[in-house]
Amino acid sequence: MFNSPQMNRRTFLNDTGMGMTGMALSSLLFQEGELQAAEAGLVPHMVPRAKSVIWIFLIGGLSHLESFDPKPALNKYAGKSIDETPYAESVLNKDKINKILLDPSKQKREVFKAIMPLQTGFKKYGESGLEISDWFPHLGTCADDLTLVRSMWTIDNNHGAQLTYHTGRKITEGAFPTVGSWVSYGLGTANQNLPHYVVLGNPSADCCGAAWTHGSSYLGPEHAGVRMEVDPKDPLSFVRSADDSMTPSEQQEMFGLLGKLNRHAGIQYPDDKNLKARIKSYELAFQMQSAVPEVMAFEEESQHVQELYGLNQSTTKSFGEKCLAARRLTERGVRFIQLFHGYRGNAGAWDSHRDIKRLHSQLSAQVDQPIAGLIKDLKQRGLLDETMIVIGSEFGRTPGAEHRNGNSTVQGTGRDHHPHGFSVAMAGGGIKGGHIHGSTDELGFHAVEDRHYVTDLHATVLHQMGLDTTRLNYPGRQRLERDYGEVIHDIIS
């Protein structure tokens, strides 16, 4: 009966139990996530290795060359043209440069040939000897828990690549489900009082995807990321009652009535996605009023833990609070937490076309200790094995120094956008520690060994959460082969 297209479990329960008992049972099943999974037929396809994902995105384009992929040749040939190096033929091949871009005629950017030396040093860390830049010394102390994937590539040479990183699609194609929304769609909720998918920090600006970077597109609004303020004093201004005189009990009665009315309407319109999302939002909004302030109660943490995240320092406090909130959310069953860093209303703070040494060193100082603190804190609590952390950006930066005619500020002190080869760092959730996967060429230009498009990263995250990306589909929507990606099995322990 429950498999009939004309009868689902929610309709059955409401039709046969419109009294309070039936409503209570329906509500309990809904809150526990069982009803959603049963209706959609969505349960893990395999035994999951990870229960939660913390997806850290650095807006604007982190330089892979000054973070996770050192290239001594940049110092050796500094100031020379790429044409003067032994690598000119392989690096400057036009077909190779244009191959990855969906529309090279529009997306092609100038190849800056004057090689810029590395703007910081590198050290080997841990028993594994992973080389990590001097701008990330705290993350270096986590080397034996990290996998560095040095062979990522993407299809957009401009900041629309921010959306591509999250959906696999080019910005001109519009909104598509993000990796976080696929996790929500595939697994439902693991908690009663918090969203499945939470967004911390300001996401990308209008130029680069905006709300699409945490949206769910055709999967329905209930699978979109819910933005949450990391402010212990005011974490939920968006669900506070507009009537200050209303007591909590009165508000609870109001939400209860709205829920009942919406469920009555839901019997007549069982396929209305917006109505379903509205019902969930009313229930969740009330539950979150007590759950979220408790998540943000950082004063409950010991001084040692607060200092581990850098909450005692002005440079690291803001992002440290986001990382600590992410840990507290994973403990409460939130499946996907998306952290943004570097919002400034345009392409993003990490977009260092000029003065990369000063800007990248400042930005890395804001995130290095908090991210390392997150890894260490999860590990000491026995949670790292079941929590996957992904650290990335939309693309890397060019090996050549950027010069722009007519722009006096862009004269060889920064690096341009670089989609041809870049890095991501990962930890936890069944990912190998102290491991390097893939490589770029000697100048860090092209990904050449074990190359991976961004949806391979998505497929790997989903796999560790117990989901087979090839089995995640939506009725009436045809996905491209590229959308599915391929699991990076080599990095899985």
- Major sheet summary line: 9 strands, mixed
Helix content: 25-40%
* Overall 3D shape: globular
- Helix count, DSSP H or I runs of 4 or more residues: 17
Fraction in beta strands: 15-25%
Radius of gyration: 24 Å
Note poorly predicted spans: 1-41
Question: How much is the average pLDDT?
Answer: 86
The number of strands is 15
Euclidean distance between termini CA atoms:
42 Å
SS-based structural class?
alpha/beta
Structure description:
By secondary structure, the protein is α/β, with parallel strands linked by helices. The chain has helices at residues 9-16, 20-31, 34-40, 72-76, 88-91, 94-99, 104-107, 137-140, 161-167, 179-187, 248-268, 273-295, 303-308, 314-331, 356-380, 454-464, 481-484; strands spanning 52-58, 122-125, 130-133, 146-153, 197-200, 226-228, 336-341, 387-392, 396-403, 411-418, 422-427, 435-437, 439-440, 447-449, 452-453. The strands form four sheets. Strands 1, 4, 5, 6, 7, 8, 11, 12 and 15 form a nine-stranded mixed sheet that branches. Strands 2-3 form a two-stranded antiparallel sheet. A two-stranded antiparallel sheet has the order 9-10. Helix 1 crosses helix 11 and helix 11 (248-268) packs antiparallel against helix 12. The longest helix has 25 residues, at 356-380. The two termini are 42 Å apart. The relative contact order is 0.20.
